[in-house]
Amino acid sequence: TNLGLNKDGIVVLRINGVSPAASQSMVRALAAEPALKGAALSDDVPFSGNSGNDVVQLPGEDHNSVIRNVGAGPDFFSLYGIKLLSGRPLSWGDAFREHSPFNVVINQSLARRMGLSPDAAVGKGFFAGDDPQNLTERVRATVVGVTSDFMFEGDRKLIVPSFYVFFPGSGYISVRVSADGVPAALAAIDRIWHQFEPSLAINRHFLSADFERQFKTDEQQGRIFGVFVGIAIFIACLGLFGLAAFSTERRTKEIGLRKTFGARTTDIVLLLLWQFSIPVLVANVFAWPLVYYYLQGWLEGYAYRINLSPLYFVGAGAAALVIAWATVVVHAARVAKANPVHALRYE
Questions:
Q1: Distance between alpha carbon 200 and the CA centroid of its chain, in Å?
Q2: How far is the CA of 116 from the CAs of 143, 145, 170, in angstroms?
Q3: Which of 24, 161, 283, 317 minimizes the number of CB atoms within 10 Å of its CB?
Q4: 127 SS3 class
Q5: Hey, how many other C-beta atoms are within 10 angstroms of the C-beta on 269?
Q6: Type and span of the H or E element at 175
Q7: E strand or H helix that includes residue 247
Q8: 174 Cβ contact partners less than 8 Å away, ≥ 6 residues apart
Q9: Alpha carbons 171 and 13: distance in angstroms, whole number
Q10: Nearest to 77 by CA among 167, 170, 5
Q11: Rounded CA separation 153/274 (Å)
């Protein structure tokens, strides 16, 4: 999936307790460090689910709307590789001040919600306020740039109209490191952190860990299902193996007669395999609707997901047939190759 941003090689620093002045000085020092490839402030980071909402009145609308807002520093979009469609990113001079007009960057979805193209949205604005019932103290937000849509919250949630503001008292610093210099980069981050905040313990982690955490439950569920499915297949194969032994033993004389009248070994093997394929095919007829219902519900937990192709079900059915054939083919081949004289001798 194209997330619309580059999540690899990002180290996230949690800077709760750090003053706005110290955090801005720290991010400048991190950006200037040769062992690092850039740094940016933000009030939230992708995949953390901590973004907030604001009450706004969009142009052309006479009612309030709740729009997601994210605090983003001047280098946030370039650090994450987010494409700027028009205008410019936020700058240090765009820092938000209480009850004062401010500049924002919006995503393409919000520009579309405003009925504007990315180019036309630059220079336009909307009013924002804190109270969802009262916008009497609203302030104007002016659009200075428009970004392409990106999956800030991962692929479990739809991309929603959003705007980005530079809050000086941000809660995170994102630092990009090179894949071949991670130890040196982490050492540089720790050194700069302790240079500015010697009394605070550093709290850092890789952004990729937040991304992977979204799928942790699915991966655990997959492992549990894998174990139980493996056990179920093993038990089914034991039963099928015993049934094949019993059935082929009972049909020894029939197979001897068929061979006497000219049936080839291949014909006998195919006949026996078809006999054991029928229950597997019938089981698929019952299983497919149940599996489709379950998987469709599971996939609905993702905003961006694949469609269930019939090929998946055909492939699973074919795999079940192959397992059944592999289980009984030894018995079938042994009986089919036997000398029919032994089966018919007492007749």
A1: 34
A2: 12, 13, 30
A3: 283
A4: strand
A5: 20
A6: strand 172-176
A7: helix 216-250
A8: 10, 11, 12, 13, 39, 40, 42, 45, 76, 79, 80, 207
A9: 8
A10: 5
A11: 50
- SS3 state at 42: strand
CA distance 143 to 120: 10
Q: What is the SS3 assignment for 129?
A: strand
Residue 57 phi/psi, 5-degree rounding, is -120, 110
261 three-state secondary structure: coil
Task: Identify any residues that bridge with 105 across adjacent strands, giving them in sequence order.
Answer: 145, 164
Strand partners of residue 10: 176
DSSP string covering 48-108:
S---EEEEEE-TT-SS-EEEEEEEB-TTHHHHTTPPEEEE----GGGB--TTS-EEEEEEH
Quick one: tokens of 217? 């439950």
Closest CA to 324 of 273, 284, 250: 273
* Residue 196 identity: F
Q: Beta partners for 95?
A: 166
Cα(343)–Cα(253) distance, rounded to whole angstroms? 5
Q: What is the pLDDT along the chain (347 residues), one digit of tens a residue?
A: 788 999 999 999 998 888 888 889 999 999 999 999 999 999 888 887 666 788 888 887 778 888 998 989 999 999 999 999 999 999 998 888 887 889 999 999 999 999 999 999 999 988 887 554 555 567 889 999 999 999 988 877 888 999 999 988 778 999 999 888 899 999 999 999 999 988 888 999 999 888 888 888 889 989 999 999 999 989 988 888 888 778 777 777 777 777 777 777 777 778 878 888 888 889 999 999 999 999 998 888 888 888 899 999 999 999 988 888 888 787 777 776 766 666 555 45
Distance CA 242, CA 247 (A): 9
